[in-house]
From TrEMBL, chains A, B:
One of its GO terms (biological process) is carboxylic acid metabolic process. The keyword Isomerase does not apply. It comes from the Eukaryota. This is Glutamate decarboxylase like 1. GO terms for cellular component: cytoplasm. Transmembrane segments: none annotated. Signal peptide: none annotated. Belongs to the group II decarboxylase family. Homodimer. Keywords: Catecholamine biosynthesis, Decarboxylase, Lyase, Pyridoxal phosphate. One of its GO terms (molecular function) is pyridoxal phosphate binding. It comes from Chloebia gouldiae. Its cofactor is pyridoxal 5'-phosphate.
Amino acid sequence: MEFGVCKQEMLQKKNAVLVDGVILNGPIMDSKAGEKFVEDACKIIMEEVVQKADDVTEKVCEWQAPEKLKQILDLEMRDTGECHQKVLQLCRDVIKYSVKTNHPRFFNQLYAGIDYYSLVARFITEALNPSVYTYEVSPVFLLVEEAVIKKMIEFIGWEEGDGIFNPGGSVSNMYAMNLARYKFCPEIKEKGLSGLPRLVLFASEECHYSMKKAASFLGIGTENVYFIKTDERGKMIPEELEKQVQRARKEGSAPFLVCATAGTTVLGAFDPLDKIADICEKHGLWFHVDMVERGMWLESVLELRPAVTLKAKKYSTIKAKSKIQASWGGSALISRKHRRLLHGIHRADSVAWNPHKMLLAGIQCCALLVKDNTGLLKKCYSAEAAYLFQQDKFYDVSYDTGDKSIQCSRRPDAFKFWLMWKALGTTGLEERVNRALALARYLVEEIKKREGFQLLLEPEYANVCFWYIPPSLRKMEDGPEFWQKLHQVSVMCYLRFTD
Amino acid sequence: MEFGVCKQEMLQKKNAVLVDGVILNGPIMDSKAGEKFVEDACKIIMEEVVQKADDVTEKVCEWQAPEKLKQILDLEMRDTGECHQKVLQLCRDVIKYSVKTNHPRFFNQLYAGIDYYSLVARFITEALNPSVYTYEVSPVFLLVEEAVIKKMIEFIGWEEGDGIFNPGGSVSNMYAMNLARYKFCPEIKEKGLSGLPRLVLFASEECHYSMKKAASFLGIGTENVYFIKTDERGKMIPEELEKQVQRARKEGSAPFLVCATAGTTVLGAFDPLDKIADICEKHGLWFHVDMVERGMWLESVLELRPAVTLKAKKYSTIKAKSKIQASWGGSALISRKHRRLLHGIHRADSVAWNPHKMLLAGIQCCALLVKDNTGLLKKCYSAEAAYLFQQDKFYDVSYDTGDKSIQCSRRPDAFKFWLMWKALGTTGLEERVNRALALARYLVEEIKKREGFQLLLEPEYANVCFWYIPPSLRKMEDGPEFWQKLHQVSVMCYLRFTD
């Protein structure tokens, strides 16, 4: 700690105000030294992270096992602080031993690569350190969020709507579930679920695990998520949904929600939205679409190597992305060429969309969008805290959107998406989506050509599922031993990247 | 968009791979231009935000009403992207019209000021863009989170425990509520609340509004939060709690949780934790302590002016903080001098603690800490997603803590607290807590001396509640008109800061 100022020296100054042993009006911190520290650290960040982002010769990660890494890093927080040089060294070590998700060879879940615009937006956000609950503290960020939500709604195809950015797609799905429940029976907000019939919701058996988490957290119960059978491509079978809704009704339970998945975790399957919308309409069920894309990412399909296999369930799945930088529309919505995959999306009551994955807006950037424009979101979530949401302010308090959230402090996540969109334009985003799908197509052709690679199925989207069968297993018979050995391949591969 | 490369030019190159009209192996982005953009933007951030952070002569905010600000900012996202110079100008405008929460005169809710170490940690986080679910993608950040949680547990006074960082104190309170419910009846995770007796929880009538939000979200219902009367200082009255628990039992409902507040929003009151712990023990109730500090902040009490009044409920409340920089322990826990306020905290089953407010770790940095060390957190929250949490990895998968969370992608928020703690040391943090409370004491003495200021009550913590009565109202009789006019004072004051 270099900011300490000698107490004796301060006390000798005129007008020193001493209260409870503390000199109140003395400088407690040297802001110039603080600024110098930030400058020095920024230099390290630029050199070690940003400039190395597209350098394939750099390591993805200086891998260490947990116990070893604990020894290397000086994790202990002590009574006495460290000098700036030591703290800067800590910063270097943190970077050194962290996984570079920007790296062209980062093939783990969900995202990879760097977007310079969203990165700058995030730096601005951290420097300003705002919280978006009221217009008076976040004027710019609230207007930006409004503009981004409006634009996303336009792409979904709704005439109007509402929305909010949340800390993650899983949380967005929870929001939708709670909103659907509120619409079904507003009294639940005050009375709770006790004594009510069993609420039941429907999602495909390939849906994301956040459906179960949400059902558990919201007091609905994981058993009341009825999983609908999927076809051989991983898409929900509408006839099976119809059957399950009828089964729930016969049981005397209360069906209230169907969650369709647009881009499943493993196969990248799109549920047939239009047909599901028909069933929802018929039975009066809330129709939510989870288009929070998931899966692994392949940075450079042009350099396909055995090492790129990664295990997920029983097969490897890789989302193809551009060589240097990827940014998909959080879905195919952005691409005029590929948005047909989401045919029927405009009939949804709510949509979860994560620009932080394919669009590279940075963790976390996740929106829940709602078709309703009668204030349902606010009615469902508001608690009307008097200390934050006074109604007698000197501006239009409808801009104080914080009460639509389960959070109090909330980050301005829409801003990073906005700045990126401004810089690239819709056309720039669209080009990336098209490029990503072209890369997936290329990968498929490569897999077909190369020995030891076995395509699981023709992808309709960007998830390419295949097996890499190493030479030692190519002559082996299909059976438990074969599959056990094959599964080990993906684990071994990870090590290759970090060597 | 300056990164576009002429397609014709690329096609003429050897080995161009064209798929679906996309050239796959051409550069789609000039990373040097991207890096230059980041450098230019960082310069703006340093000059316009960081270096101006402690300059009282700068404006807190270039205030504009919503409709006017929309006109000024170019919010529309278009088909075509903007050039770097235009995007840099947008960054300048965003900064210009945003509220500077770092500013010495920022007196709105929850926090103010700048901490250079946590800021650097946040920059590192944004550049690396990690997600903390598995050790393989976030080795450093998961170990850091473990170390920070261990240290926080030490300060609470537990021998062991568990914990997780969440997107906000409200979410931490939800986690605790769900955890208490799971402990009360693990079957709820699968079966839900339907058909069960009415669950009831207890919190003081001065508790944070997140209790109601949580009860609503979790399907418990806001009416099943029994609000316990407080004394004249805003503290929960234990005898009233006892009565309400008995009332709930008589009604045939199922009491399961008591939420005590350590530092209420307005008065900064500390519920009597030790006595509440007795009642919880007697009745077998989960004991949660919400020590997510709230209220407004006073940057510079040495320059007390009428303008510092801000309305909350019926009185003004201001948390005193150091002149240049404030950082309290997220509570008084860090200070040997003041931790007596939290006497009995070690008896809690769970604690919500936000280092992002008083400790200035940056939005958001919020921990839920749990005394249980038998894996309750994981049992309660896990969904065991196969694509993320494989059990056959090549390292100890107990470090894959993501399944303790309701989130999938999760930010490494513990890191900013850790780097700050490393730099300042516990002593540095402690000095700030002591300083903040000394400032509060000074403010109280000033209020007593100055005409037109009326102290509401002697504070026990850092919330100083008082009225500023302007000259025009000083001779007026107490009555509805007087209060109506007095309430308007706080709204008018806000304008002063932004002029």
